[in-house]
Amino acid sequence: MRVDQPVQVKAQQASEEIHVPANSATPLVAALGLTLIVLGFGLTLWFTGLGVLILAGSLSRWIGDTRRSVAELPEATPSA
């Protein structure tokens, strides 16, 4: 074989699907809660309390959505 000849290699098929999570407003709501917590430290503790509630609720939903999404994924097959 000569060095200047191109080598053709047959590509293997992908063995796994790419998982992309669905669109969600949950990260935006979590950011809003975190923003209220930070603002509350400078303004009033009412904002902090409201921010903690919003952040806790959004994180709870976010984690739940992620767990359900991961549970729906197909089982991994060992590669040979």
List the SSEs and their pairings.
Layout: H1 26-42, H2 45-71
Describe the protein in words.
The protein has 80 residues and is mainly α. The protein has a domain at 26-70. The protein is 55% helix and 0% strand. The protein has 2 helices and no strands. It has helices at 26-42, 45-71. Helix 1 runs antiparallel to helix 2 (45-71). The two termini are 30 Å apart. The mean pLDDT is 84.
Order of helices and strands: HH
Mean pLDDT: 84
Task: Give the radius of gyration.
Answer: 24 Å
Q: N-to-C terminal Cα separation, in Å? A: 30 Å
Reported for the largest beta sheet, the result is: none
Question: Outline, from the CA principal axes?
Answer: elongated
SS strand fraction: under 5%
Helical fraction: 55-70%
Keywords:
80 residues, mainly alpha, 2 helices, elongated
Task: Please give a quick description of this structure.
The protein is mainly α and 80 residues long. It has helices at 26-42, 45-71.
